[in-house]
Amino acid sequence: MSIARATVVPGKGIVRVNSLNVDSFNNKYLKGVIVEPLKFIGPELTKVDIHVNVNGGGMMGRAQAARTAIANALVQYFVEDVELEKKMLEFDRSLLIADARRKIPEIIQIIKRFIYGISS
Fold first, then answer.
1. How far, in Å, CA of 120 to CA of 115, rounded?
2. How many Å apart are CA 52 and CA 5, to the nearest integer?
3. Which domains occur in the chain, in start order?
């Protein structure tokens, strides 16, 4: 489970994840996932800097957490653009709403297996 926090401040259009510029990422797929919400603001991107801190999880979980954090931060920063949130929700609901599904802890699976073995 990854946790990401994004801040949007007036600037020059720089996007950083854990103090690294997104353009320096080697994995193009992960980079594409992270910068996906930026397509919705168009030329306004050159007027803001985005800083994201991500902790926990694997590479893909971190990318998706950063994506959701960036999208929510942009919606809050560009409050006057009412259509922005609607466009993002129509494109992909997971841009603004995190996936709440989690893996069942292993101990619960073991208990279920043990109980099933007793009852049969």
1. 9
2. 6
3. 3-119 (3.30.230.10)
User: DSSP letter at 79?
Assistant: T
| Helix or strand holding residue 103 (H, E) | none
The CA-atom distances, in angstroms, between 15 and each of 58, 100, 103 are 20, 26, 31
Q: Which residues pair with 49 in a beta bridge?
A: 9
Q: What's the pTM?
A: 0.80
> In tens digits, what is the pLDDT along the chain, a chain of 120 residues?
789 999 999 999 999 999 999 989 899 999 999 999 998 888 888 899 999 999 998 899 999 999 999 999 999 998 888 888 888 888 888 888 887 777 777 777 777 777 766 655
